[in-house]
Amino acid sequence: MSRNKRQAWANGLIAVSALAGAVVLTNHYTQPAANVSAPVTTASTAVSPGTGATNTPVGTTGTATSDAIQYRFGQVQVSVTKANGKITKIDYANSTATNGRAQAFPYLVQYAIQAQGTNFSNISGATYTTDAFKQALNSAISKLG
Q: Would residue 49 be called left, alpha or beta, if left means φ above 0 and alpha means ψ between -120 and 50 degrees?
């Protein structure tokens, strides 16, 4: 194969890969309707990893702020509001993430409210951010219970 053909083939492959990546990112990072409010500040402490959803008794009403969860791309701290035992709002304003990973936060809020906890799938390309978000969410929910 001549050098020109190899170069053309490589350029085509790069273009197709870029297009596929753009489609995936577009599907994951279009802005969802998220319920976001002003930040709530509290002291931060690390929490060991946890998994699974946390259930709160029906009738629980109030707002609680999670411990700050440190992870390899930043920090996640959320404030959760429940009304009559149902999550109605999640504020992630005290959360940070590097290299565009913060774009996952509105989706995580939307998924958590829909699931009423942490029983939702990870976002592709933001696994660590999703895991840290779930830990923070469990922390806040446990404070409401």
A: beta
What pTM was computed for the model? 0.61
41-100 pLDDT, tens per residue?
A: 333 323 333 444 445 445 689 999 999 999 999 999 999 999 999 999 999 999 999 999
Q: Would you tell me which CATH number, out of the four given (1.10.260.40, 2.70.150.10, 3.90.1010.20, 3.40.50.2000), belongs to the domain 62-144?
A: 3.90.1010.20
Contacts 24+ apart (CB under 8 A), 9-16: none
For the chain, the structural domain boundaries read 1-30, 62-144
Burial tier of 30 (Cβ tally within 10 Å: 0-12, 13-18, 19+): exposed
Is the pLDDT at 118 greater than 90? The verdict is yes
Q: What pLDDT is attached to residue 67?
A: 97
Take residue 8 and report the two structure tokens written for it.
């053309």
Is residue 134 a contact partner of residue 69, using CB atoms and an 8 Å limit?
no
